Amino acid sequence: MIYRLDFPTLYEWSNNNSVNSKILESVHNLLSDSLLLYRYKVRKSIPNRFGVNDPEKINFDLIKNKSIVIYHLDIYMEKPGLINDLIEFCLENNKDLFIPTQQDRYYGKDNAYRKKHEYKFDIALDLDAYDYQYYDMSKDSSLVQLKRELIISSL
């Protein structure tokens, strides 16, 4: 199952302590057997994590976890189309995949900034080709519903 966690904005940097990072970490902790994929530094206390800068270097044969949580979507910044490989792997192997996406698009005057973050919307468009559970993370009710479903599924 693919879970699209749609945040108003995605803030990603080393040792990030933003709301979306806390939510993704809590999702990872609620899952009994999950792998957290990250690009920037994360706290060492987070278990079952794998750092990756290049999505081509992900060895799918080594992933034995039941669920995968993408902590930093920036993993796919230079190669957004490669997220489809991870999606297909998860669908073929019956693994849950949690993908953070961004609702708001940058419409400011800084073209370099806009182009740098365009991959987030490319990934969101790629997701539309698949069936997924959608959660609007700007609403508390979505977060409560997601947590409830994860707790029930772990029983």
Descriptive account of the structure:
The chain is α/β, with parallel strands linked by helices. It has a single domain, classed as Rossmann fold (3-Layer(aba) Sandwich), CATH 3.40.50. Helix content is 34%, strand content 19%. The chain has helices spanning 19-30, 83-92, 111-116, 118-127, 140-154, and strands at residues 2-7, 34-38, 49-51, 67-70, 96-102, 133-136. The longest helix has 15 residues, at 140-154. It is globular and about 50 Å long.
What class, by secondary structure content? alpha/beta
CATH topology: Rossmann fold
Task: Identify low-pLDDT runs.
Answer: none
- Provide the succession of SSEs: EHEEEHEHHEH
Q: Which strands sit side by side, in order, in the main sheet?
A: 3-2-4-5-1-6
Tell me roughly what share of residues is in helical segments.
25-40%
CATH C-level label: Alpha Beta
Comma- or semicolon-separated keywords:
155 residues; alpha/beta; Rossmann fold; six-stranded parallel sheet; 5 helices; 6 strands; globular
